[in-house]
Amino acid sequence: MKLAKAITASFIALGASSTWAETVRELHVFLPDNATWNTSTPLIYEDGKAHELTPDSDHCGWFTRRYVDENLPQEAFFYMEGDDQFKYAIGMDGEAGYNSGETVSPIDLDGLFDNFMSEATFAGSLYFVADEKQAAALPSDFAGWYVDRPNIKGRCSYILATMIYDTDASLHPAFSCYAAGGEGCQAVSGTAAQGVDAATAIKAIYDCIGVTTGLVEDTLDKTTKKPKLSAAGKKCFIDEKYFNQLFNYTEGVNETSCFDIPFTRTLKGWDFNSDEFVVPGLKTAVTGGFFPVEASTDDVIKHANASQKPLPAARTKRNAEGPIFYGTKLRALDPTEQIPLINTICNGPGWDKGHDCNGMFADAAETETFIKSINSTIDCVFGWSCPEQAPTNWPIYTEGTETPGGIGINGVSRWTSNVGGNGNGGRNHHFCSETHAQFKYKKGARFSISGNDDIWVFIDNKLAVDIGGNHLSAPGYVDVDKFLPNAKQDSIYDIDIFTCNRRAPSSDLRISTNMLYMDQNAGISLESKQNMEEWRRTGNNVYKVCYTQNHNGSCVPQVTLCDTADFPITQKPKISFLFTTDPTGKDPTKTLISEEEFAANPIQLDSIFDVSNPARPVIKEKRLIESLAPGMYYLIIKIDDEQATISFAAKSEASIAERRVALSSTSAFSVMKSGAQEITITTEKPSLAKRFAVMDLNGQVLSTGKLNSIDTRVKVPTAGSYIVKVGNNTKRVNVR
Predict the structure, then answer these.
(1) I want to staple 478 with a disulfide (CB 3.0 to 4.6 A). Which of 200, 350, 458, 725 is the partner?
(2) Which range of residues forms the domain containing residue 687?
């Protein structure tokens, strides 16, 4: 008996839940490996109650739910945090269910385990492949379900590209080195870099020691994507000229390169932590610290931008120190925000449940006093005060070196690397970074960042994190729900991150977010249901078409435009539409409404399609679905070399078939010889399939064209036999 039949019979026969006494049962699920699920915290909803799933650290893309001496649920499905309407819920049919618009079909886990336990290799675990493409490629008696783990993997890491502007204190007056008694690498008399008076440069540095807010304007220009110095910011940067050099290539001041920041998946999202990172380019690999330009050479710089002039002075090594950990209580997760407690301490534009950190994080002693004053339970702030609270596997070094393995009185929790010393001989400090990406908004979105020195983050072109100044590693946090109160679920928003390491000897960067693994790809993005009330009332779906232009390099600021009026006059792309039964849009024989027809008449099929405003196409989806014969249909949107697809699944429902004449079925036709080298295609009635194709007997397309109202005459190359295709129907004709 087939397994599917056995399970179906069991579902009917089972009247009560079975109890797996003193037994462990595990459910392992491979969720869809796409942007929607990879940017969300997955949950399982069991008999009316939500439970978290645990990422399987040994099997990328898999999540686990463990049951110990529990009744197994009879109604369960998977969904993502923030999807309160269960729009993307996954049940028995996997991803294919919601892709075809079906209501989620709950999973009877109790029945499934009961039936699969008779399998020879069953060992207490079931494996569910919810990813539609992966499941389709795997053999299974019961689609998507297995007693042995299929050999598939998902995405557990991604790269965020950032532009690095590398300079040095000898080249730019806003950069310096901490040293006892003064700034160790900035002129103390005469002139500083670029001829700035030394006293003026030193004052600007000291005026902005510690977290210094308000240095940049709170709005980011959506076209230039560069922060602007505020009036108050001149106290730190002397003049707008010097500030603008931070994030713009300036010959003789900096050199640019592209650096890939690697993110890894965690239980709550995606993280990068420089404490655990080994930067490329070091002579001796050492863990910890964010120094992205250790691998710079003239060739690397020229490869990044052939038009720039390499600047070896920007790669000057300075004395450096490694990171230090926070105490155990500060590393513990905040119970509400689910991020380390230290990250919630400072208020900012995107967070108001912390404290005013302006002027804080200037030095260790003052910072410890500040943090303990706002939370009396904190017994340790920085790890040098509590080495016993070091995280698991935190390396210990011989004091004054980069050599791991120090013990006893010579063992310290951070490395030291001095210019001219052993190991790497210091680090290449003094650089700024600029990162541009997008994320798809979902309820519960959070963004956390910490590091030194200046950090400014803009979300939807509004300042969300403002921790400028020369400071120890300081935290910034954004409750995106509150920061963007009018954000639409699944809509696309920009995130722009600017940082500067302006003062040696340390450099750290940590980013944690449950938002999108931030997309830097060019292309088309679609947002549906722009008028939710209209959609619910009539089924008319208004789409928003956005286009991210490709600037031939992921580090280059990208511009995303969602209105044709926003495109530069000289760069207005053509937006075209194609309605077809071919998901690739490449088969002309499956075209139902061509690009040319949409261009000539943007209102098609009795107003079912209205692309008069190509950036806001309107589709009467309810009418469309009811009018189509069963099958899959695709509206393909093209801009430049990119394309995006809207899919429509027409159901096989007798009531609909009886009620309407399916438009695509009206492609019934006849074909006959009408001349020496001519055939005539006659359609029985007006046809949705307005185009034809003539093929040889090997399927090679010889010609395509547009059908006339009734009779269409077509020339053929020679006498012989041909296949004529109209819509999904084909007929053979002999020309003798």
Answers:
(1) 350
(2) 665-735
